[in-house]
Amino acid sequence: MKKTLFITLSVLLLTSCGGSRSLKPESSGAAFELLLVIDDDVYNSPAGDSLRMFIEGPVPFLPQPEPQFQISRIPHRLYDRLLQTTRNILFVNIDPNLYTQAKAKFLNEPWANNQAVCNINAPSRQEFADFISKNGDRIVDFFVTAERKRMHEYFLANFNRQANDTVYELFDSNLAIPTSFNRYKRGDHFLWISNGSASGGQNIVMYSVRYTSTEQLTHESILARRDSVMKANIPGELQGSYMGTELKYLYPETRFITHNGEWAAVTRGLWRMRNGALMGGPFVSLTRIDRVNKRILTVEGFVFAPSRAKRNLLRQMDAMVYSLLTPQDLYKRRIEREKQGNK
After folding, report:
1. Averaged pLDDT for residues 240-254
2. Strand ranges (DSSP E) for the chain?
């Protein structure tokens, strides 16, 4: 009974982060669509080329090139209030009479709920191009993070209680997994949940190992552990085949970040079936230290979608992976709720 109550509490903690909605209208547009407001003469110049390299450049660690965003472009004179609720808007303003240096201003929900807006102001095209070369990734990350937040809210609105209870039972943790994920496989400190789709397969894998040394937290150790766990738990149809990490075609990358105020590692790359059928796709994983139980937790999302675009499928997995709440995260949120309740 006590454990059931705590699972219910942890779900409440997970779903409480959205907050109340404002009286603003909802933003319009599809995921990863970006409205670019830029005058033609700037867009068709080297300054415009420098911007396109980032916002129309390929998403890293996909097997085929796919752009960061689907771009709709208009000049300033055609922008009006009808477009003001677009979910992602990037304004490019170049005017030596108004600006003395190049800057970016990031706005969340200025005119609509779940909206992300960025203004890039510069006195000249050259200063704009120089600014973009140094800050282009930051601008892309702003819109990608906004989309991740929207997906997270969608998953919470379509929350799979059974999946979360299973995650909590095995790992004392929470994940925002939607109801479309309904196929399960459990193993030794291992869980695999899938949507079961043959054409747009999305999968969440979670596993843990005992934490003994910081040497377990290196890029090489994370990859080695991944291959070991996948070989033991995700076999292919042919005898001796199993899921492995692609190391030759495109070597994986690990970035060390702060997640919920603590150390974390995000690993991106490609997987492929070893000794079996020609199967593969992209993956993203988040590795955290479970300080309560003295173990390393990894949650991974991977996609199998042959002959189909994979950007949005993988970024949906990205949102699920980033939703991880470790035991210490849940404890912190419970304390925060108790403090709020006492006010």
Report:
1. 92
2. 33-37, 70-74, 88-94, 103-108, 116-122, 183-187, 190-194, 201-210, 242-245, 253-259, 262-274, 280-290, 295-304
DSSP string, 202-255: EEEEEEEEE---GGGGSHHHHHHHHHHHHHHH-B-SSTT-EEEE--SSS--EEE
Residue 204 · residue 301 · CB < 8 Å: yes
Q: Give residue 21's pLDDT.
A: 61
Nearest partner of 151 among 286, 323, 12, 282, judged by Cα:
323
**Element containing residue 139 per DSSP (H, E):** helix 125-157
- How far is it between the farthest Cα atoms of the chain? 70
CA dist., res. 311 & res. 68, Å (int): 8
Going by pLDDT thresholds of 50, 70 and 90, the confidence category of residue 176 is: very high
CB 197 within 8 A of CB 183: no
**Cα angle 174, 147, 86; round to 5:** 145
**What is the pTM assigned to this prediction?**
0.90
